[in-house]
Amino acid sequence: MGNSLHNKIYLGRRSIALGTKRVQALLCIAAFASIGAVWLLIRAL
């Protein structure tokens, strides 16, 4: 039982780590998009 519980916790942390990587990738893309939008706005003015 202890081993199965440990495996569940490990798999849970692993899935959370993958989720944070996806979130970080989305945040990075959003940051570049916002920077590009601000640059276009400044260039338009």
What would you note in describing this structure?
- The chain has one domain (1-45).
- It is built from 1 helix and no strands.
- With 45 residues, the chain is mostly helical.
Major sheet attributes: none
End-to-end Cα distance: 65 Å
Structural class: mainly alpha
Rg estimate, integer Å: 19 Å
Morphology call: rod-shaped
Mean pLDDT value: 76
Low-confidence stretches: none
What fraction of the residues are assigned to beta strands by DSSP? under 5%
Tally the structural domains. 1
The DSSP helix count reads 1
Transmembrane segments: 23-42
Keywords: Membrane, Transmembrane, Transmembrane helix
In short:
The chain has 45 residues and is mainly alpha-helical. It contains 1 helix and no strands.
Write the layout of secondary structure elements.
Blueprint: H1 2-44
Transmembrane segments: 23-42
Keywords: Membrane, Transmembrane, Transmembrane helix
Structural descriptors:
single chain; 45 residues; mainly alpha; 1 helix; 0% strand; rod-shaped
